[in-house]
Amino acid sequence: MLLTTIIVIGLVLTLDLLVGEPPNAVHPVAWLGRLIAPLDREWADSERGQRLAGFAIALVVPLIAATAAGGLVLAISVFSPLLGALAAGLVLFATSSLRSLLELTETVVAATDNDDLETAREEIRGLVGRDTSTLSPAEIRSGAVESAGENLADGLVATLLPFALLAPVSLPAAAAAAAWVKGVNTLDSMLGYPSKPHGTGSARLDDLVMWLPARVTAVAIALAGTDLKAVFRAREWARDPPSPNSGWPMATLACVLSVRLTKPGVYDLNTDAALPTVADGERAVAVVGRGAVVAALLAVVLAAGITALAGSLEVVIS
Questions:
Q1: What residue spans define the domains of the chain?
Q2: So what does this one do (predicted)?
């Protein structure tokens, strides 16, 4: 199963780099988003009632995604283990994203280099949710670089780690875990705002789920930038963003690149450095890309450890 896990992870990364994300019409995450959209409404007259409804949503919706993915892989595996492994890989592919993140970051950075600020402000909306109308070119680049670091955790590492943890034991369980995490992330991105009490449960669950992936991503970025000490330097600013997790990959990337990353009025990371130049933005794309490879290698090491542990347990039981 370890070899199968390695092949599936390699296939998924290769497929992402060659193809990118599927169109929304056939993207399972987009289908999930359409399922969630009608849930974004008032469920009760009181804030407490809204929160209770939100916790129920946070419990049920990711389970629907997990059941669908795991059930599909299990059903296909009954007929053909090979096709089952392929189906598990397609689930991981659908729940992860790298190429689109890197390409969009490159587009935003290049637009600031060409003084095409309207394009930069338009394109960066796919990366950040802040008001970009008054941002300077350097602040736009900062937003793009921040998002590249944060979304490496959300878009790849968060689903890759549980998949690697479970795949050596059960591919259906691995696919279900990846889908469950993506369900949690998608709920948080759509409902997890302070203005939406029914999103509180989704936000809290996402904070819990992303605790480890965010920190693993920080380590992967530091290794990719050949500056492991950047993780320790990043501790000074990692807790400044409102999210308990996003600051780790962002602050580590800021330290690796020796740049300042800021969301005006919210947080300021690596404050002694200057805001990123175009060259810094290009380096950020390269570091995040290498960070994805490092994260994949760490996932393979995790899978190997689980395989060895499972083998030891079998020997003890027998």
A1: 2-317
A2: Converts cobyric acid to cobinamide by the addition of aminopropanol on the F carboxylic group.
For 65, 156, 163, 233, 260, the CA distances from 179, given in Å and listed in that order, are 6, 12, 9, 34, 34
| DSSP assigned state of 41 | S
In the numeric block, the tokens 């009490």 are attached to 197
Helix, strand, or coil (residue 157): helix
Instruction: Give the position of tokens 């796919």.
Output: 126
pLDDT mean across residues, the chain: 93
Q: Is the CB of residue 222 less than 8 Å from the CB of residue 235?
A: no
Whether the pLDDT of residue 63 is over 90: the answer is yes
Q: Which residues of 242-273 are buried (b: 16+ CB within 10 A; e: fewer)?
A: ebebbbbbbbbbbbbbbbbbbbeeebbbbeee
- Secondary structure (3-state) at 175: helix
Q: Are 250 and 261 in contact (CB under 8 A)?
A: yes
- When pLDDT is averaged across residues 37-62 and rounded to a whole number, the result is 94
DSSP lists the bridge partners of residue 267 as 263
Residue listed under structure tokens 């793009």? 144
Give CA–CA dist 87/75, Å, rounded. Answer: 10
Quote the crossing angle between the two packed helices 2-19 and 278-317, to the nearest 10°.
160
Residue 104 tokens, joined: 């969009």
State the DSSP code for 153. Answer: I
What pLDDT, on a 0 to 100 scale, did the predictor assign at position 137? 92
pLDDT in tens, 222-260: 999 999 999 999 999 999 999 999 999 999 999 999 999
* Model confidence at 317: pLDDT above 80: no
Backbone angles phi, psi at 262, to 5 degrees: -145, 145
Whether the per-residue pLDDT at 314 is higher than 70: the answer is no
